[in-house]
Write a structure and sequence with these properties.
Helix content is 12%, strand content 29%. With 187 residues, the protein is of the alpha+beta class. The chain has a single domain (6-186), classed as Jelly Rolls (Sandwich), CATH 2.60.120.600.
């Protein structure tokens, strides 16, 4: 787990002869792409290490230029799940947000704030991902990533990001502070 609470498995989809892992993933998630095609991050805690719950309000902030790095043909999404890993029923029928969501509103500086909470806020509804009233988790998926995030340690290491400059075809690498994003509990 990273200091920001995110967990990533960067061998998913590349099983080789690890039939046990392949079977577990087939039972839970029907399969997965190889890391060069998609990366999956999972989070159940806020930036303070407390479990995520719909009784609190949260903000997930992506600084300008630090959205999840994917190729033009790729995309990213953030999906909300309840404590049993089922999607959360809500009046908007909004189960995920991402770069293909036409309702998202960027801040004037180009940053993106997503709000994770059980009730809508009139000022933030375009960027609201409805949460259940109890415990929840979110999964951030990056399809066709443009910089190597195959280990959280490499993603957090400035040296690793700089050594991979050739892989950064369309996007600049987010800074250590920007990736992975921290889910911040709001007052």
């Amino acid at each position: 787990m990273s200091a920001t609470g995110w967990v990533g498995n960067f061998e998913v989809g590349a099983y080789g002869t690890d039939y046990t892992t392949r079977a577990i993933l087939a039972r839970r998630g029907l399969g997965a792409n190889v890391p060069d095609e998609s990366l999956y991050y999972y989070c159940r805690t806020d930036g303070e290490g407390r479990p995520l719950t719909g009784t609190r309000h949260y903000r997930l902030s992506f600084p300008a230029g630090a959205l999840p790095p994917c190729a033009h043909e790729g995309f990213w999404s953030l999906t909300m799940y309840d404590e049993n890993m089922f999607m959360v029923p809500n009046e908007l029928r909004r189960y995920a947000v991402g770069d293909r969501s036409d309702h998202l509103a960027l801040s004037s500086d180009g940053s993106l704030d997503l709000y994770l909470r059980a009730t809508a806020s009139p000022h933030h509804e375009p960027n609201w991902l409805p949460a259940p009233s109890g415990p929840f988790a979110v999964v951030l998926r990056v399809y066709l990533p443009t910089w190597p995030l195959h280990s959280l340690e490499a993603a957090l290491s400035q040296e690793a990001a700089l050594s991979q400059e050739a892989a950064l075809s369309q996007e600049a690498a987010p800074s250590r502070e920007a990736w992975p994003p921290t889910i911040e509990a709001l007052p």
